[in-house]
Design brief:
CATH architecture of the largest domain: 2-Layer Sandwich
GO molecular function: DNA binding; DNA-binding transcription factor activity
Number of helices: 11
Protein name: Transcriptional regulator, IclR family
Radius of gyration: 23 Å
CATH class of the largest domain: Alpha Beta
Number of domains: 2
Pfam family, one: HTH_IclR
Keywords: DNA-binding, Transcription, Transcription regulation
Largest sheet: 6 strands, antiparallel
Oligomer: single chain
Strand order of the largest sheet: 5-4-3-8-7-6
Shape: globular
Strand content: 15-25%
InterPro entries: GAF-like_dom_sf, HTH_MetabolicPath_Reg, Tscrpt_reg_IclR_C, Tscrpt_reg_IclR_N, WH-like_DNA-bd_sf, WH_DNA-bd_sf
CATH topology of the largest domain: Beta-Lactamase
């Protein structure tokens, strides 16, 4: 008996005509695009922070008004959007916030590490980032970001992704892989040179990883697209999985406090590994 998704099953049936196969694959592609469009709508409201009319939303999304109308009506019928007033546009209801809070509260990892991340942010007064390596995209994914109290600081949001070769967290996470796995991963990537400090060969990155392990911190000191940003990072293992934490800020502040921040960072990582 066939098992799996309907699309997966149908793809295994050899007698489907090319026209039917094309129709099925187009339908799957449409579903993916619709899902992405819903996420984009939520992100537009988060960015604009005001009610938006149908035409305004279509303009922000660079999408046809007709397709936006269908999505808005669907989201409104499900209780995610409401009309703020006659001709005043749509705005998200509290349902999104309530769902996000329930999801966040049930997170199996972030709730456990948050107190230590907050303490590290408070003692360094710099932005602290908790991240993981996504082996599918081969990029660093920011799981949580705790903002610095300084008016001039490194700014990022949870969910952001970064290249592994020009990021302190990426280097720290690469160090958790075996040598062969690390070389295979790097050899399959296009290592973009953002500036003259960026390491763009597997050999240079490997040498930097070994030096970082010896000195006790991984660094991105102006190596990425933001040349005036610096960060140091260290890996840790929580519940059997590898993560990394960074302390990031303006390059001049990070460079002048690198040893002190690195010591506090390692202490925080060791505490979490031993107590979570």
């Amino acid at each position: 008996m066939w098992t799996g998704t309907p699309l997966g099953i149908l793809r295994h049936i050899t007698y489907l005509t090319p026209a039917i196969r094309t129709m099925i694959e187009k339908k799957a592609d449409t579903n993916v695009k619709t899902a992405l469009r819903v996420i984009e709508i939520i992100e537009v409201f988060a960015r604009e922070t005001k009610p938006l009319s149908l035409s305004e939303l279509a303009r922000h999304l660079d999408a046809p008004v007709s397709s936006c109308l269908a999505l808005l009506r669907t989201l409104a019928s499900l209780g995610y959007l409401y009309e703020a007033g006659r001709r005043q546009g749509y705005y998200p209801t509290g349902r999104l916030l309530a769902m996000a809070q329930r999801i966040s509260k049930a997170d199996p990892i972030l709730g456990k590490v948050l107190p230590s991340l907050e303490e590290l942010r408070d003692t360094t007064c710099e932005t602290v980032v908790f991240a993981k390596l996504d082996l599918m995209s081969k990029r660093v994914v920011y799981l949580d970001v705790l903002a610095s109290p300084h008016p001039i600081s490194y700014v990022a949001v949870a969910g952001s992704q970064r290249d592994i070769h020009a990021n302190s967290l990426g280097k720290a996470l690469l160090s958790t892989l075996g040598g062969e796995e690390r070389r295979a991963l790097l050899s399959g990537l296009k290592l973009q040179a953002y500036n003259k400090r960026t390491l763009v060969t597997p050999e240079a990155i490997e040498a930097d990883i070994q030096a970082s392990l010896e000195r006790g911190w991984f660094a991105n000191l102006g190596e990425s697209i933001m040349e005036d940003v610096g960060a140091i990072a260290w890996p840790l293992k929580v519940s059997g999985n590898d993560y990394a934490i960074s302390v990031a800020g303006p390059l001049y502040r990070i460079e002048s406090h690198v040893e002190d921040h690195a010591k506090k960072l390692r202490v925080a990582c060791r505490f979490m590994e031993q107590n979570i």
